[in-house]
Amino acid sequence: MPENQNAIGEHWTKESVSILKQLGWEQKGSCNFDIECTIHIKERKGQNHGVDSFFEYYDPYYQCNQGILVESKNWQFKSITTANIKKWIKQITDCLECLQVSPIIQDLSKAPIQNALLMCWANDEYIHDEFMENLNKVGVASKKYPCNIFVASNYQILRWCSLINTINNIKKDAKSFNFIYPNVPTLGTSLILADHLTLTHLYSKYIFAEVKQEVENYSGGTDIINKLVVFCYEPASSASLDFLYDLIKRLNFQSYQVYEVYLYENETNIRQIVADFKSRINKQIKGDLKKPSTIDVKYLDIFDGLKNVPDGIIRFGEV
Amino acid sequence: MITNYPEKASLKEVLTTSLSLTAIKSICKNNGVFLLSADKDTVIRDAHLFYWGFTDINRISTYMDDEKNYKKSFRLKLSLDSPDTDVNTFTEFYTKLSTYRNSMAALEDIKFESFNMVSDGDEQILIGEISYTKRKPGRVELLAETTQRFSFQAHKSTDTGINIDFIFNDRGDIAIAKKIVNTALATSEDFGKPTQISLKGLTIRERVELFDRFFGYSFQDWRIDSIQNIKISDSEEALDDGEDQEALEESILNGIKSALLSGSGLRSNPIVVQAVDRGYFFPKATIMFEHKREATKILVDITFNTDDLLLEVVIVATYEIEDGRTYKHPMPVDEQKVILREFHDIIQEIYNQIQEERTTESLDDSRV
User: How far is CA B49 from the centre of its chain?
Assistant: First the structure.
């Protein structure tokens, strides 16, 4: 392990925090603090659990606040092996157990804590297929309590940076911007607008948002229109775009005057597919008969490394 | 292919009724999410809240196939009516099936998703996948209309014979598969009627002999871990008393296990001998195999089904061994196909041996 590993680790913890804050999460406490180990005392020989960072957000589906433990790892790609990922997950699940009864955490948050996020950054190279192969081989025994571990690799992290960057650009011309949590009949929850993204939506292939925007009208004045924005992380094909449009209809989003779909793809490869899709959908009259809704397709930026991520995203909030 | 987005309720029902906890966790893991609760309701609640993509939903649909329908296979044997003819058996079969595919198939609403001649070393194999639509009215949307798919592999068994292995998911596939072959060969003057290996052609002792030799076979990759279950039947009629049948099955199963442990073979085991003397035989055995080199186990049914006691080889479940624990884990279809073909070949080899020995014995008898 290089001598400056601790410094690199601490730096990455701060960068992770800045990304998550921009996704609307609220950090509780500082970075890098310890909590007492009360359950694995023998195994850990009295050693405390280190907490890189701890967050809280309101979960519209669970209708309560949720606490999230975040562990940040910044390693060389070849060292992000199945065995190491498994070791980190064990570290996290052990820590989650002790967090439940930690007085330090109880002072910071009263929210239930059942989710943790592993921000796993490869600092030299990154091969997505190889990472997924290693991850899929990680076997973790089931727990007797609700416990979910979300693993974010370079792929996921750069995707979030891209999302933040696009949202920042949309916000420049918008009156308001909110993420949409559609109603879920199986839970009995209503549609909710919020300014943050939960892990459930961050790990979904479609993220919905509502944008209010001022546009000029025919009489020279201005109108406020409601736009539905869908960030789509599904590879585009004729069938998958139709599938997405079917989802928009199922969620009763037809009343929006404009649908803007953002694809996470290289435009040139799918230009014809997208043109056909837009033409097909725009021929169908929907919404207000006098002002039928229209669909437009745009593209998210694709960053191939942190160096290309615009300033102000990952360096935001650095100490 | 699933082309409409499923409602949350529909997705939740499918996760609840059609997928195991392991499968749901595996799908989530593939998206970077480890749902670690041991409680299935908790895992389903969390899993159904994600907005899954087009690929994910179709993968879930495939998992339903993998989970609910581990691959099953049956074999049709074709041979030339006149072995002396100059006809190239394999080419003739390929031509007949191609003609069916290009003409009759569309009329019968049957689609050949693929149809290729491939080479595996020196061996030529005709492989194909067939689809047809099966409707199940009244089911939840994700299940209401399913496209059924089954595949086949045809290869030469002898100069004048062909084996066609059908890998099916649903019993309805068997009828469709037989109909395709019969229709394709209806105009052929060279091929006889397709046949299948059946216990009907063997005496009670020979039927037990077939299983005995299978249990004692030296498999290349597998060893028998345990015989988990057997089904017994009698040669005249089905047993009336369910309780008696259960007791007898249990007793014979114990007999088989002790015979395997002692390495003495079934035929000399007193319990089995007694059952055979009373006219009983077993048309089905459920066997757990363990791979000789890999951390894998498979549970397989060797079963002779229907009134005609026709051979089917069924993969009941597949497992991975991790940290000494056995986890149910669907094996990729291609690997299942290899195993099914191997077991069909072995049973066919044993079946032929028994028949050949019978011919030799009767010849010897006639000389005496």
Answer: 36
